[in-house]
Design a protein that fits this description.
CATH class of the largest domain in chain A: Alpha Beta
Structural class of chain B: mainly alpha
Enzyme class (chain A): transferase
InterPro entries (chain A): Glyco_trans_1, PIG-A/GPI3, PIGA_GPI_anchor_biosynthesis
Low-confidence stretches of chain A: 392-397, 468-478
Radius of gyration of chain B: 31 Å
Helix content of chain A: 40-55%
Strand order of the largest sheet of chain B: 1-2
Pathway (chain A): Glycolipid biosynthesis; glycosylphosphatidylinositol-anchor biosynthesis
Shape of chain B: elongated
Distance between the termini of chain A: 22 Å
Number of strands of chain B: 2
Distance between the termini of chain B: 61 Å
Structural class of chain A: alpha/beta
CATH architecture of the largest domain in chain A: 3-Layer(aba) Sandwich
Protein name (chain A): Phosphatidylinositol N-acetylglucosaminyltransferase GPI3 subunit
Radius of gyration of chain A: 24 Å
Shape of chain A: elongated
Strand content of chain B: under 5%
Largest sheet of chain A: 8 strands, mixed
Helix content of chain B: 55-70%
Oligomer: heterodimer
Function (chain A): Catalytic subunit in the complex catalyzing the transfer of N-acetylglucosamine from UDP-N-acetylglucosamine to phosphatidylinositol, the first step of GPI biosynthesis.
Order of helices and strands of chain B: HHHHEHHHHHHHHHHHHHE
Strand order of the largest sheet of chain A: 3-4-2-1-7-8-9-10
Number of strands of chain A: 16
Number of helices of chain A: 17
Mean pLDDT of chain B: 67
Strand content of chain A: 15-25%
Chain lengths: 478, 506
Amino acid sequence: MPYNIAMVSDFFFPQPGGIESHIYQLSTKLIDRGHKVIIITHAYKGRTGVRYLTNGLKVYHVPFLVIYRESTMPTVFSFFPIFRNIVIREQIQIVHGHASLSSFCHEAILHARTMGLRTVFTDHSLFGFADAGSILTNKLLKFTLSDVDHVICVSHTCKENTVLRASLDPLMVSVIPNAVVAENFRPLEQGEPARSIAPNDIITIVVISRLFYNKGTDLLIATIPRILSSHPNVRFIIAGSGPKAIDLEQMLERNVLQDKVEMLGPVRHEEVRDVMVRGHIYLHPSLTEAFGTVLVEAASCGLYVVCTRVGGIPEVLPQHMTTFAKPEEDDLVIATSKAIAALRSNKVRTDRFHDQVKMMYSWTDVAQRTERVYKGIQGDISPEEFYGYYPGQGWEASGDRVRSFALIDRLKRYYGCGVWAGKLFCLCVVIDVLIYVFLEMWFPRVNIDIARSWPKKLKQKELADTSRNGPHRIESAS
Amino acid sequence: MPSLSDSPPSVPPPVPVETHPNRAVGIKPPRQQRTLPDPTRLAPEDAYYSPTLVRTRTGPASYDETIRGLNGSTGTAASVAALRPPHAVPVRKLRGTSRRRRRKGAWKKLLWVKQSYPDNYTDTETFLDHLQRNPRVRPYDFWPLVADSTVIVQHVCSVAIFVCCFVGIVQGRVNPVSIVCWGSVGTAMGWILWDSWVFREHGENRVAERAPEGDDGSSSSSTASSVMNPSTTRLNDQKDSQVHGLGLTMSHGETEPGQRSSNPDRRSSNSGLGDSCLQDAASFGSMNGAPSGSALPLPLYAAPMISRLSSRNRQRLSTVKSAFLIYCALLGLSPILKSLTKSTASDSIWAMSCWLLITNIFSFDYGSGKGAGATKFPASLSTNAAVMASTVLASRLPSTTHVFSLMLFSIEVFGLFPIFRRQLRSISWTGHVCLTLALVIAAGGAVGFTLRGGLTAAVVGSMLGSILTALAMGGCSWWLISLQKYKNVVTGPWDPARPIIRRHWD
């Protein structure tokens, strides 16, 4: 059955980025599957009010105070009135929050639970446990996630991290990876057999990343001169900007490598493919990465991938597309040399990469798997089936995974969050419930208009399903 | 489950050395069935039970304890079940895994394969596999900890002495000129001692340097200097240009004192009078190789025919010269400093100087100079805070002589004394302990004298001070050790990796 879903996050277009495109792609694919999806985000400069995107995707840009890097001010309750209004207006059943640094998403999950809605949270990033910022974020995450219905993580490493950070039941956390729109990342000549590389041909190594410390730019700076000195017929193309760009340029000047390394500066996401197809190898020296969408994009463009074995990266691509290295200078040089040698010996069938990646990752698949999560929390799949049923192994699917909306049960869950934090969280929840009661009295539901849904192409979809040709057409159209 | 408790752990649990970045490529080799969970790793259920500390080094004793904890938790599950989900994971881990595995085809920790398992499937074999708990924990011992705390005691005592001196000057009990005279005499003696140490060290350095001359230049000289003068290696770590500098040491080894040439010829323009007082304090330090973060203000004469002795003399001469410069600058600045914050209310002055001195104590570089970059703050922060505090305090003094004395004294106490203390500590431990004792007694006496006045008060104060300090040192050390059981550092593949980079292209 179709659901009414609200995606809530601080991060959405017009700001570019991985989370933003994830939300957009997932939403459009869910709409294709017959659901109604709206997106709630804060107002960006020149973007306030309601907007419709392709496919009837409705975006609410709520005016809100932005404090840091497009995250809104965490004011626990002030988002509630307008959120309630939107939810009632759009008849939302499931609230799906994204990104753990987005306070919008956390508040929405809290209020949605108070209003008796099912909630899902998607975590896109990895956090440590050591520094003060992480500790604070983790405590907040624990607050929100102690009463969430289900959590989605983008990789298994991310799942382990989230389970530890928020003390979750591992079975309540699903792993659904990101995907790429393979059509946007085609190699240059498709379908033809791969051009073989002669021993003295130029091999181009592409690096596309923001030039930050945690993206491993220091490693890159250390390895480039060594690779270039041992392989004369290698060129680099580096795209991206950031605080480490100066160090990179200094290295180029010191070693006089300007003619072998091309610095493109920042590139738009649409242009990434055009940069990628100019190279043979994609080098990714990142120090931490939850998923690494850019690796999939590079492989989809037919590039051989050299990357560090950190975070969720080892799970992303199969062995024959990648060479892994430790996050060490020497090992990265060795791995790159190996990759160059493998390409020179024409052992790697990079021409097949695109079709293989297309089989591995698609947003349609992601939407399907997310839909299963929605079904599970809405009770359309039985808890036994959703959480697994292992007879005779000491536990049955219990009632606690299906989170009840009774206030006392919610308070019990929040109370377990910590000695002081638990009481504080309980206080917040009680106030939230009181605000809800107040809002119901002063702004009764009956006075809120119901928004008309975007006219669905349901007929076509049904037709398409019967004629068996249709799904492809609809997917390629969207 | 019953077979668990009576099967004794034959081998002590291995400390997991395997980290995520090094883990074997691709699919893990099928391990033998893990009947007992490794206690050094977290099981999924630890996420919602308050973790008991398992030191990585403890043997079978804590191991049994963990098992008991596991058994107990499954036994009393009913009470917890109201809040937490049942413990599917540990039970399956112990019994059912291999059976299920054979039936269904192994689950792989990969995202690109389509698997027949649901998305929320949790594989007990690999889940939280690479998690490590307290991987680098180093248990503290009581006496070394107490010994290390003497450094802090020394600094706090010198701050206390300074404050007491100021109170004495303000209240007119102590003559400022006598304070500054005693301070200057002490500084001069300290400098002579320090100079002789450095001189001796140079001799040893040169001997050590000459021996491995055939070796690779940078490594040998850096090891030599790390033996003799630990602070140069620290500089080494901080500035990548140091390798180059040490190479220079090798080539000019005959003519140059190693430490001076280890600072590349980055002469800072020594302009500005207010700057120069700090500059000199710093130069005192950087000749020593102390991490004052400042460049050497002395010119680097690289004339090869000048003998070593005369170069030392020249160094001394220039130190005296800069000391004289500071003296004159302070003399000139004193009237200005006196009226600088005169219009500020006394309350604000007291509050401000308090905060500044607290900043000084907390941001002071207590490290020995060994090891790479120990402090987060620049060492200049604490010195600047202290000098600022004395500047602010100076406006409450009646005459220019008072101001001059206080400023000079503060430079001696906060700028030069720490360098001497650090050097003394690295040279002789007995001297260090003696100095600590003297400082504690002096500070106690000064506080007693300031509060009550009179010799008896001073004696009582120094006795009380020593006892209290000893108690505080012991108590804090014991407290820190007892707090160690709450240490629970969790590391895993989600932590940002530390890149290992060889700086070779400089």
